[in-house]
Amino acid sequence: MAFYNGARVVALLLLVSTAARAAGDGLLLNGNFEYQPNKSQMNGTRVMAEYAIPYWKITGFVEYISSGQKQSDMLLTVPEGAHAVRLGNEASIQQQISVTRVMYYSITFSAARTCAQSEKLNVSVAPGPESGELPIQTVYTSSGWDSYAWAFKAKRGLVSLIIHNHGEDDDPACGPLIDSVAIKTLYPPQATQSNMLKNGDFEEGPYMFPNAPWGVMVPPISEDDHSPLPGWMVMSDTKAVKCVDSAHYAVPHGARAVELVSGLETALMQEVRTVPGRSYRLEFSVGDAGDGCLGSMQVKGYAGQGCTTVTYNSQGTGGHTRASLEFAAVADTTRVVFVSSTYTTKWDGTLCGPVVDDASLVCVSQQQPPARRLLRL
Asked: Record's superkingdom (predicted)?
């Protein structure tokens, strides 16, 4: 009992030291769960003490998983390092982080579904109303692991990040695996005269793990100011779009792009202020990510009442084409939408799709003044 109390005091000190450290871009403290709990605070794989995992507080049925561990006839793998955690029914992990008030942050973490078919994770920060439900039932990689992003605006200088599984499975241990939790400060770009789209080149976005070759999934998000892909909303029920980088993929422009991996089930959208009657030109690039995604791909670009369909025949090795759409605004706000009208899979059966990048919107003509009436003398 004395040892348990001593371990609890040490864990509390670790939690306090976590709160005193400013959040920099990269893994949270013990974000990859490689610092192990003491065996005296575990029952098999289940973690029994709420502060047993260094720098984390747990609630509910949480397991500490080693890579290669078996669950029934399934082999559990870990994407980074040798350990991860599994969140069972009503289980959560949380960590206090020091942030800058009113700044925007993106959280990236890796997750893998285990036994449930429609697993979801709730990610939130406290204090504050920010929370999001991330569907993880679709698997986008052959390894079973995907990285997900979620964003928030800091209301306080000290917040608690909470990842929670609201599971109701008959097996209380059933739930997703979590690994590699990281944070990144976001600096949302603003619209300019040369480009009315915010973050049209997708260069500002979530933290991407240097050694993870599968990109980062941005799940449905209907508020662009709280998006891990600043300026953009992801419209879908359960599917996501994928942020890809030039270190692991073919990117048409710059260091990042977005791969539309979910066909008609997901749309990438941004609302732009326009003047009714004025003409505008939307330009964007469509290509493939060089990830072995083969076949004829189609991207539809919408702006106001205008629409263009771009067909790209992918060889799976990279490349892109440029598209343009001119339209007249009919309202004070115009929606710019990109959606893939084709469903494509790679040789291993995983979803893939066309890449969209380097999108720009400019005004090409001013509103014509009303015609003058001639007065008869």
From this structure: Eukaryota
Going by pLDDT thresholds of 50, 70 and 90, the confidence category of residue 366 is low
Is residue 160 domain-shared with residue 198, that is, in the same domain? no
pLDDT tens for each residue of 191-245: 998 999 999 999 999 999 998 889 999 999 877 768 999 999 999 999 999 999 9
Rounded average pLDDT over 144-159: 94
Clarify whether residues 212 and 247 are in a common domain. yes
Task: Say if residues 184 and 216 touch (Cβ distance below 8 Å).
Answer: no
DSSP string, 39-80: GGGEETTEE-STT-STT-EEESSEEEEETT-EETTEEP--SS
pLDDT over 60 at 46, yes or no: yes
Structural domain includes residue 274: yes
Find the CATH number of the domain harbouring 315: 2.60.120.260
The answer to whether 292 and 330 are in contact (CB under 8 A) is no
Domain assignment present for residue 373? The answer is no
pTM for the structure as a whole: 0.88
Q: Give the 3-state secondary structure percentages of the chain, helix then strand then coil, rounded to 5.
A: 5, 45, 50
Q: Which residues contact 314 (CB under 8 A, 6 or more apart)?
A: 287, 288, 293, 294, 295, 296, 297, 344, 354
The whole domain housing 83 covers: 2-186
- Residue 156 DSSP label: S
CA-CA distance, 172 to 158, in Å (whole number)?
32
Kindly state whether residues 18 and 143 are assigned to the same domain: yes
Q: Could you say which DSSP state residue 225 is in?
A: G
Residue 241: inside a domain: yes
What are the two backbone dihedrals, phi and then psi, of residue 273, each rounded to the nearest 5 degrees?
A: -75, 130
The total of structural domains in the chain comes to 2
